[in-house]
């Protein structure tokens, strides 16, 4: 988790994965992420850490997840700050978050970035393009209006489910689109 607004996306991801068999989670939080958790949610950083199987300091460049020999299906940075995106796009691995992301890319594993910045200027868009060209999947939390969300949780859950779809994990959070005819029938 990096320091962008939207800490709930990373928290919900951990909450959901805690109940998925055979998934081991490793959490790294930037100092700004910890601050945003306190500002945006009712969680403490310690409570978020308790959701993960393993917690690493962002300063620990020598952690297990900083090596290509560490076996993993991939990595999600949710939320992903533009500063973190920039470091990833430019291979500037000055923290464990960025080093682990760089390793995921070099090993050709799945890296999903959930950027929360808006609006974007050309420099941001170029960084997103560069990260995508390196192999990252860019998954900004865009609301799926067809689900007719009633709460922020509806939106968060749907997006977390879509992120997990990228890893072939289906905890049942996504209301799947059934086509326009079904949507019309459901609206009646």
TrEMBL record:
Domain Flavoprotein: from-to ranges: 1-166
Binding-site residues for FMN, renumbered to this chain: 3-5, 30, 116
EC number(s) stated in the UniProt entry for this protein: 2.5.1.129
Keyword hit for Flavoprotein: yes
Protein name: Flavin prenyltransferase UbiX
Gene3D superfamilies the record matches: Flavin prenyltransferase-like
Residues at which dimethylallyl phosphate binds: 146, 162
Family that this chain belongs to: Belongs to the UbiX/PAD1 family.
Function: Flavin prenyltransferase that catalyzes the synthesis of the prenylated FMN cofactor (prenyl-FMN) for 4-hydroxy-3-polyprenylbenzoic acid decarboxylase UbiD. The prenyltransferase is metal-independent and links a dimethylallyl moiety from dimethylallyl monophosphate (DMAP) to the flavin N5 and C6 atoms of FMN.
């Amino acid at each position: 988790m990096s320091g962008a607004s939207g800490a709930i996306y990373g928290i919900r991801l951990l909450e959901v994965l805690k109940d998925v068999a055979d998934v081991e989670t490793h959490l790294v939080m930037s100092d700004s992420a910890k601050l945003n958790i306190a500002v945006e949610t009712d969680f403490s950083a310690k409570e978020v850490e308790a959701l993960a199987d393993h917690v690493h300091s962002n300063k620990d460049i020598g952690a297990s997840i900083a090596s290509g020999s560490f076996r993993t299906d991939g990595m999600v940075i949710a939320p992903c700050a533009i500063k973190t995106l920039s470091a990833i796009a430019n291979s500037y691995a000055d923290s464990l978050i960025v080093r682990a992301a760089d390793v995921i890319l070099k090993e050709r594993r799945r890296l999903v970035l959930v950027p929360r910045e808006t609006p974007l200027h050309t420099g941001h868009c170029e960084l997103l393009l560069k990260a995508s060209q390196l192999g990252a999947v860019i998954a900004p939390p865009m609301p799926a209006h067809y689900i007719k969300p009633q709460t922020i949780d509806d939106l968060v859950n749907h997006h977390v489910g879509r992120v997990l779809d990228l890893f072939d994990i289906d905890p049942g959070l996504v209301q799947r689109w059934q086509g326009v005819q079904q949507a019309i029938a459901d609206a009646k």
